[in-house]
Amino acid sequence: xxxxxxxxxxxxxxxxxxxxxxxxxxxxxxxxxxxxxxxxxxxxxxxxxxxxxxxxxxxxxxxxxxxxxxxxxxxxxxxxxxxxxxxxxxxxxxxxxxxxxxxxxxxxxxxxxxxxxxxxxxxxxxxxxxxxxxxxxxxxxxxxxxxxxxxxxxxxxxxxxxxxxxx
Length: 167
Known about the structure:
- The chain has 167 residues and is mostly helical.
- The protein has helices spanning 19-42, 50-61, 67-74, 78-90, 112-134, 138-157, and strands at residues 94-98, 106-110.
């Protein structure tokens, strides 16, 4: 039977369950999830680097953003962002269009092919995650879900934490 550490459960207060110990366990889990994410992305119809995927996801989240906003969002230099967009445009994933109000500014848009590739990556990642979660007991999945919801709520409530956007 899985120990869920509920109220009154003497196991819930073990020394190894302090914030530092749990943070270490979560860091290990995040590394494993990152590896799962990366492998799933590499199995997609078009293999993209992490930077390319991040750029496409950023444009997907803010269609029409300009190159400066993309560079800022990715925390890279403007020349690097420009070369990245050149490669994505050459692959048919990204389109540059002149801004309707500012002739010097260029807007970035995903092409239908870019949307398709991101959907493929997301589907593969969801399948890989579902497979890993399927190996867990239902009570463990429920406990993980509750824990993640509590983590996100605590993160949102912590001043200066950046909220969920900082994750």
